[in-house]
């Protein structure tokens, strides 16, 4: 395929998503990162304990773990609230991004214009819109946070999908012409499936961004039932290990979103696993 | 009926602009039903352009292109030809089977018939057992065979091939040449085949159309009569005579007909 892909915008969508099975079996894929992780945690614990680092600078991992366990029910409840916001925002933003990309790809002029515009808009600190959006809706409304997530998600999905949709293999174009296929048939049978790797690159980026946006949007007011509100209130009460425990919760939530996106990618594109 | 007729065809790209290029000029060519015609010439002689004109992938600047007795545009709409390129151009998200089915699918052929026809074509190119594989699992030569199976799937009366074996190793190439001749003979398909290789052109063709560049035009048509092809053909004196004729025609110092044979 002759794809000239901007590496900054679409980070190598043609690369295999999951590393192939390596020599030495699955152990080699799991054990080294695990060892490094455990060693890192031990080092952290030692530095904090031996160096008598104040908890407001950096609490020990054991203290964070203890707080995490003690507040597990709150973490779960607030995590679910944030997760719901992130998921709804992600679905809306991705759907709108994909549809917009399909429209922009259909009309050459729109495609030319929209990529620089999207890049410029993407450079705006969208999170900073949160206080404005909060004032536009009731204080009991979940809409502002979901809206922030949707806007944040829109850009990576739109930009990546548009690139994928616009780049049709010239041979595929000639072939479809030789079959006398109409424009819509070409979109359905060639453009969309060829764009899937790009779309999923966008979705993978977006899935982590969605959680970040859902959590951080709460820092700026609005309904306070998610992880973000707990982080700010724990920090305000100088309960630093507890604040970190909620950060850990947000981290786990982000990881779950990313892994689900990755799993979906593998399920939807079986031909990329071979 | 004649398969293809080109009458005083020319093609100018970027007409009226500073980068105007005359890709083809004054082309007259007739391909008979069941005939195998090869286009050969240096890069830029317009042989791919000529093929694309026949396939109505581009339109001539002047002249007319008739395929299967109809204007090229109508012939394309009726899927009167199958086409294969130097790259296999398979759809990586479709299995081998579904790649071959695609042209049938676009013709509205029923699912059952599609499946049967694809199986038949894949057996023809010797890839029946790879039907459920994805293209990425096949070697380059196998992918090219799938592309040929796909081009043949609608049983087109005409096959257009643009250097389909160009990227293959010599062994695979010779095997596929024999396979292609066998398939064309058994189905009665007419073929226009673009190549850079003189031996390939002579081995495959009933007629070799020699072209030259700037502007692209037909300089000579070399008839080849080697009878049924086989391993022995590649060693036969007639084969080498044909190669010499085509080589001379390419250089532009053609000998009068009959002087070397």
Helix and strand content put the structural class of chain B at alpha/beta
Report helical residue fraction of chain B: 25-40%
Q: Give the termini separation of chain A.
A: 18 Å
CATH superfamily of the largest domain in chain B: P-loop containing nucleotide triphosphate hydrolases
The gyration radius over C-alpha positions of chain A equals: 22 Å
DSSP strand tally of chain B: 10
Relevant CATH superfamily of chain A? MetI-like
Measured distance between first and last alpha carbons of chain B:
31 Å
Shape field of chain B: globular
* Assigned CATH class of chain A: Mainly Alpha
CATH fold topology of the largest domain in chain B? Rossmann fold
- At the first level of CATH, the class of the largest domain in chain B is Alpha Beta
Q: Tally the structural domains of chain B.
A: 2
Q: Specify Rg of chain B, calculated over alpha carbons.
A: 19 Å
Oligomer: heterodimer
The percent range for helix content of chain A is over 70%
Considering the chains and any ligands shown, give keywords for the structure:
heterodimer, A: 274 residues, mainly alpha, MetI-like fold, 0% strand, globular, disordered N terminus, B: 261 residues, alpha/beta, Rossmann fold, 2 domains, 6-stranded mixed β-sheet, 4-stranded antiparallel β-sheet, 8 helices, 10 strands, disordered C terminus
Overall description:
The complex is a heterodimer of chains A (274) and B (261). Chain A has helices at residues 26-50, 61-70, 72-106, 108-122, 130-136, 143-166, 170-178, 183-216, 227-236, 240-268. With 274 residues, chain A is an all-alpha fold. In chain A, α3 packs across α6 (143-166), α3 (72-106) packs across α10 and α8 runs antiparallel to α10 (240-268). The two termini of chain A are 18 Å apart. Mean pLDDT of chain B is 89; it is low at 257-261. Chain B is α/β, with parallel strands linked by helices and 261 residues long. In chain B, the strands form two sheets. A six-stranded mixed β-sheet of chain B has the order 6-7-8-3-9-10, with helices on both faces. A four-stranded antiparallel β-sheet of chain B has the order 2-1-4-5. Chain B has two domains: 2-80 and 157-251, 3-Layer(aba) Sandwich (Rossmann fold), CATH 3.40.50; 90-155, no CATH class. In chain B, α3 (96-105) crosses α4. At the A-B interface, α7 and α8 of A face β6 of B. Chain A: One of its GO terms (cellular component) is plasma membrane. Chain A: One of its GO terms (biological process) is transmembrane transport. Chain A: The chain crosses the membrane at residues 26-44, 86-109, 115-135, 147-165, 206-223, 243-264.
């Amino acid at each position: 395929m002759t794809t000239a892909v901007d590496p900054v915008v679409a980070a190598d969508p043609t690369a295999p998503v999951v590393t192939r099975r390596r020599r030495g079996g699955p152990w080699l894929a799991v054990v080294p990162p695990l060892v490094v992780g455990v060693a890192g945690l031990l080092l952290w614990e030692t530095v904090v304990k031996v160096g008598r680092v104040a908890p407001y600078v950096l609490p020990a991992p054991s203290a964070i773990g203890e707080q995490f366990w003690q507040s597990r029910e709150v973490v779960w409840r607030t995590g679910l609230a944030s997760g719901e916001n992130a998921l709804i925002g992600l679905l809306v933003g991705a759907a709108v991004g994909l549809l917009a990309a399909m429209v922009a790809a259909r009309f050459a002029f729109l495609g030319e214009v929209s990529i620089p515009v999207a890049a410029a808009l993407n450079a705006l600190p969208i999170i900073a819109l949160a206080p404005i959006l909060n004032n536009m809706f009731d204080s009991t409304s979940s809409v502002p946070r979901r809206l922030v997530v949707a806007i944040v998600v829109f850009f990576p999905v739109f930009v990546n999908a548009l690139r994928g949709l616009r780049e049709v293999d010239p041979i595929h174009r000639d072939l479809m012409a030789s079959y006398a296929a109409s424009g819509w048939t070409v979109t359905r049978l060639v453009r969309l499936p060829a764009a899937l790797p790009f779309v999923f690159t966008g979705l993978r980026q977006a899935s982590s961004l969605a959680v970040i946006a859902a959590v951080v949007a709460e820092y700026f007011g609005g309904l306070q039932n998610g992880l973000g509100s707990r982080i700010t209130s724990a920090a305000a009460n100088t309960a630093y290990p507890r604040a970190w425990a909620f950060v850990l919760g947000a981290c786990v939530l982000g990881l779950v979103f990313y892994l689900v996106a990755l799993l979906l990618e593998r399920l939807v594109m079986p031909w990329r696993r071979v | 009926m004649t398969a293809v007729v080109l009458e005083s065809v020319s093609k100018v790209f970027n007409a009226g602009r500073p980068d105007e290029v005359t890709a083809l000029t004054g082309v007259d060519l007739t391909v008979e039903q069941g005939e195998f015609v090869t286009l050969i010439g240096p890069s830029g002689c317009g042989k791919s352009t000529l093929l694309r004109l026949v396939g109505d992938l581009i339109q001539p600047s002047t002249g007319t292109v008739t395929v299967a007795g109809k204007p090229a545009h109508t012939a394309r709409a009726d899927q009167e030809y199958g086409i294969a390129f130097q790259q296999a151009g398979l759809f990586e998200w479709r299995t081998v089977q579904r790649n071959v089915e695609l042209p049938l699918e676009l013709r509205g052929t029923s699912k059952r018939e599609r499946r049967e026809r694809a199986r038949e074509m894949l057996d023809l190119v010797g890839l029946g057992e790879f039907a459920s594989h994805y293209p990425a699992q096949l070697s380059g030569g196998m992918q090219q065979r799938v592309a040929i199976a796909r081009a043949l799937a609608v049983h087109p009366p005409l096959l257009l091939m643009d250097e389909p074996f160009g990227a293959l190793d010599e062994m695979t190439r010779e095997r596929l040449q024999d396979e292609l001749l066998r398939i064309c003979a058994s189905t009665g398909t007419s073929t226009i085949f673009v190549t850079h290789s003189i031996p390939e052109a002579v081995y495959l063709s009933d007629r070799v159309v020699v072209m030259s560049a700037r502007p692209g035009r037909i300089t000579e048509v070399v008839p080849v009569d080697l009878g049924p092809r086989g391993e022995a053909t590649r060693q036969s004196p007639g084969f080498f005579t044909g190669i010499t004729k085509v080589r001379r025609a390419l250089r532009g110092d053609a000998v009068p007909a009959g002087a070397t044979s």
